[in-house]
Amino acid sequence: MKLPSIFVSALIGAAATVSFAQPNRIASKIDNSQTFVLPGRVHPYATAANDAGEVDSTFPLPAMTMTLQPTPSQQANLQQLLADQQNPASPSYRQWLTPEQYADRFGVSASDAAQIASWLQGQGFTVDTVSRSRTFLTFHGTAGQVQNAFGTTIHHYKVNGVMHYANSTGLTIPKALSPLVSSIRGLTDFRPKPQFVKAKPKWTLGPGNYQLAPDDFAAIYDIAPMYSAGITGAGIKIAIMGQSVIRTSDITNFWNTFGIKAVLTQFEANHENPGISPGDIDESALDLEWAGAVARDANIVFVYSYSVWDSATYAVDNVVAPIISMSYGDCEMYDLVDLPSFRQLVQQANSEGITWFAAAGDNGATDCDAGVNVAENGLAVDEPGSIPEVTSMGGTAVSDSPAYWNNSNSSTSQSAKGYIPEIAWNETAEAVPAGLGILGTGGGASSYFPQPSWQTSAGVPKDGWRHVPDISFNASVFDVPYYILCNACSDIQGAGSVGGTSAATPTMAGVVALLNQYLKTNGLGNINPTLYNLFKTAPSAFHNNITGNNIEPCAFGSPGCVNGQEGDTITGSGYSSVVGFGSVDVTKLIQNWSSAALTGPTVVASLDQNPVYQGNSETCGSASTWNFQVTLTEEAGFATSVSGFTINGVDYSSQIGSIFGTSTIGARQSISGCMALSSVNAPTYEAFNFSGPNWSTAINMSFQGPQAQLAVGGASNAASYAQAYAPGMIMAVFGTGLGTLSQAAATIPLPEMMGGFEAVMCPVNCNTASTSWLVPLYYVGPNQVNIQIPYEASGAVDLNLGNPYQNIDYFFTVSPIAPGIFTFLDGTNDTNPNRTASPGQTSFLFITGEGAVTPSLADGTSPAAGTPLAQLPRPTEAVTVTVGGIASPQITFVGIPSGLVGVTQINFVVPSNVPTGRQPVVVTVGTVSTPAAYITIQ
To answer: How many domains does the chain have?
Structure first.
C-alpha cells in the first residue's frame, strides 16, 4: 500500500507596421441567465474553518482584473514568434512588439473588448482600463455587485490572526463570455509574499563579521571590469514591482552613501495606492537599492499597487522598462487556476522585449511551508519563477572565512577581496531557533509547467517538467547578508541587513541592464534559452563548483517525506535543482553572451503523452505493439537531417526513413511519424535519443507494460485493510489499468485528477440531477489508487473511476464510522510511528475512518497552519483507546493536524498496569472499534 505522505511570419519589423485584426468571438448576446462556471476560483485559505462571516454588500473591491485568453491558434502563433525573436537566423530576431501590435495579433477584437466593458458597466462596475494589448480589463465595485455579476459572496477569513477577504465559492460568468475569460483577479486580498528575510547588521568590524556593500558584490561577482569599461547601465531602465508606497529618501540616501547615480522614477498602477505596507516597504527598499547598486547609472522604475501582479500587469501593458524584477511569489499550488493568465502576461512581456526575473523562494524545496519549522505540504516550487519565460533566481551563501575578506573597509565600504566560494543557501538550522522557520533556496520541479526545449541538457532532470532555479546569487541571512537603508521600515528603522532570494533577483536584473547596455539593445526578452546555451559555450561564466542542498525537515505522513526529510542535493557539475548553474562571473557572462546565440539547428522531440497499447491493431504496421506518434521540430531556423535514433541504447537509426518518411527537417518545420514497439521484447522504454549533424536531443517516456483493462479487484480502509468505509476516510482501491503512471499528491487541497486518473462518487442509481462529488486523490498508480471518501457520502454509493481510455463503476456502502489504525508497512502490524512504549508513557498513533468531524472540513482539505490545538477538527463521537485490553487512563489529544487530510492523530497514556511484551491496541470511535494493531510494552 502507498499512502503518500498557421503563423504569419516576419511581418513585424522596424520599418513596417502590419495590422492583424482579430475576429469577434462573442457569438451571441451576453445573457446573464445562461451562465458558465469558472472552476477552482476559491483561495486555499478561504475555508469554513477560517470563515469570519460575509462582508456587507457595500464592501469595496477596489482593483479587479478580468483576464482574456487567446485562441489556440493565437497561442501557437505566439509561441512561434517568441522562438523567432530569440533566433538570430529569423527576420523577427529582437523585433519586439508594441502593446498595440500585440493586441492586433494576440488580443481579443476591439468589438469584443468593448462588449465586455459594456457588460461590466451594466453590472454596476466602474471600468478603469481596457488594456492596450486587449488582454485584460480592470474595474472596481462592491461585494454586492460581485455577487450579482459572478454568483459568489465575499467573506472575511481569519488566517493566523490576520483578517482577510475572499470569494467564498467559485465564479460564474455569462456563457457568451466563456471563450474569452480566463480569470478574474482582485476578489481577495491574499497577496504574493516578499521573498526576503531580515537579519541583524554585521558590518565588517573584524574577522567573521561581514555584510555586503555594493563594491563587495562587484568584487565577488567580477563586475568591476565592466564599470571600468563604462558599462554602468546608463540609458537602461529596470522596473521593480512593489505593493507598498516607499520613502524615496531611503533609496536615494543609500545610493548617495555609495556614490551611485541611478535615477528613481515611480508609477502608481491603475490608481491603486496601497499606502505603506509593513514587509512590502522593506522588500521594495531592498529591490530598488540593490538594482541600482549593480546598474549604477540606470533608471530604476518603481511600479506599485495594492497587488504586485497588478503592478506587473501595468508595467507590461505600458512597457515601462525592458527588465522586470519581481521579488515576490507564492507556492505554485496556491495559484494553479491563475497560472495560465500569469504565463500569458509573461509571454506578452517577452514579446515586447522584456526580461523577467523572479525569486525562487526562501523555503527550500518545500515552498508551500513558509514560516513553519517542519514542512507538511510536500515538495513545491515558487511562482512566477516556475513560469518557463521567467528567469528564476536561487540563493547561495558566500563564505565568511577571514581568508576572503580584508579586516577593514575601503572608502566605499568594500572588504571582499574577490570571488568568494559559495555553498547552496540553506540556513534552516540557524533559522528555526531564531523563530524564522524553514529557510533556504527554493528549487525543484514544477507541478504545472512542462519542460521547455532549452532545459533538456547539462544535467537537467529529463522528467518532462520545468525545473528551477536557473541561476543564483548570494542570499545569506546569518553569515553575509546585504546592507540596506530603510528608515521607513518598522523592523529596521535605519541601517539593516537582509537576505533571501529577493536579493538575488534585483541584483541579476542589474546585471542584465549592464548586458543590455553592452549589447546596445533595449531588450532581450526571455534570456533563458541563451543562458542555458551559454553554459555549453562558456562554462567559465558560471561559478558551478557549488555544493550543498535545499533539503528541509518534514512531518510524518506528509507527501513525499522520507525519513523526516525532503529536497535535493547538488551531486556534481552542471545543473542542479538547488542553485541552477550556480552564480555568474558577470564580466565573463557579458563578454561571452553573443557566442551563445543559436548558430545551428535546435531539434525538439515530442511523443504522445499517453501512448496506448493497441493489442492486435496494426495502426503502425505491426501487431501487438505500442502505437504512438513521434514528432521532431527544428526551432532555430536551420534545415537539418536526422541520422541517429536509439531507445535505451538500442539502435533504430535504420528505421528513420520508414518512421518519418524522410530524414530531413526543414528550418522551423516538423516531421512526424508513427512508431510501433513490441511490448513483448521490451515492455518498458524510457530514453529516446535523436541526433543529426551538430545536434542531439532526447526525451523520456515510460510505458508500464501493455495498457491493462481497467478493473477493480477490491478496496479497503487504507490503514487497516478492513472492507469497511466511512465519510472522510482514506480508502485504497486495488485493480488494474487505474492510473497511466504513478504519482503522489503534492498539494493540499488534494487534487481531483492525477496520473491520468479521476473519480466521481454519487449515490447508487444517481443521474445527472443527483448530488455527486469529485473525489480527492492521495495516490494514483496503475494497480492502486488512494482516495478520500467525500464527507457528504453515506449509504450505498457508486464510485466511477476513469483513465483516459476507460471507466468503470465500483459499488460499496459507506457507514457512519469505520476506523482503522495506521501501521508500519513491513508486515508486523506495529502501530506507526511508535512501535514501543512504556507503562505510563504518552504515545500516539493515527487513524482514518473516524467519520464526521467537528468543526467540519471540506473534502481534500486540512486545517490551516497555526490552528490552535483545541480548535482542530476531531471526531464527533467519543474516542477511547485500549492497550492489552486495558483502557488508557487519559487521552491527551484527538484531532486532525494541519497538513493531514482524513487522518486523525490520537495521543494516549499507556496504562500503568499493562503487561510487558507485544500487546494489541484498539481504538473505539463511538461504538465501532478498529482491528487490533500492536505495540511492544517495555
So the answer is: 5
Domain boundary residue, one of 185, 203, 218: 185
- 3-class DSSP state of 809: strand
Indicate whether 350 belongs to any domain.
Answer: yes
Pairing of strands 482-486, 494-499: antiparallel
**Are the C-beta atoms of 144 and 58 separated by less than 8 Å?**
yes
Which CATH number do you get for residue 469?
A: 3.40.50.200
Residue 55 lies in a domain: yes
Query: Which residue reads 473516524 in cell numbers?
Result: 850
Sequence-separated (6 or more) residues with CB below 8 Å from residue 620:
627, 674, 675, 676
Most distant CA pair in the chain: distance in Å?
92
Position 756 scores a pLDDT of 60
Domain that holds residue 851: 826-937
Q: Is 206 in the same domain as 230? A: yes
Kindly state the helix (H) or strand (E) to which residue 759 belongs, with its residue range.
strand 757-763
Say what the pLDDT of residue 201 is: 41
Say yes or no: 153 and 291 in one domain.
no
All cell numbers assigned to 267: 508609477
Count of residues making up the chain: 938
Report which residue type is found at 832. Answer: N
Q: H/E element holding 530?
A: helix 528-537
Asked whether 301 and 242 are in contact (CB, 8 A), the reply is no
Average pLDDT, the chain: 87
CA 565 – CA 567 distance, rounded (Å) = 7
* Residue keyed to cell 538550522: 429
Three cell numbers written together for 439: 529557510
Rounded to two decimals, what is the model's pTM?
0.69
Q: Give the separation between CA 214 and CA 255, rounded to whole angstroms.
A: 9
Same structural domain, 584 and 471: yes
pLDDT of residue 497: 87
Same domain, 197 and 180: no
Instruction: Give the cell for residue 388.
Output: 518557463
Low-confidence ranges of the chain (pLDDT < 70): 1-21, 39-40, 196-208, 490-491, 493, 597-599, 607-628, 635-636, 677-687, 700-708, 740-742, 746, 755-756, 767-771, 803-806
- Burial group, residue 786, by CB count within 10 angstroms (0-12, 13-18, 19+): buried
State the pairing for strand pair 355-359/391-398: parallel
pLDDT in tens, 819-870: 999 998 778 899 998 899 999 999 999 999 999 999 999 999 999 888 888 8
Among 185, 215, 236, residue at a domain's last position: 185
If you ran DSSP here, which 8-state letter would residue 743 be given? E
Residue 723's DSSP bridge partners are none
SS3 track for 378-436: CCECEECCCCCCCEEEEEEEECCCHHHECCCCCCCCCCECCCCCEEECECHHHHCCCCC
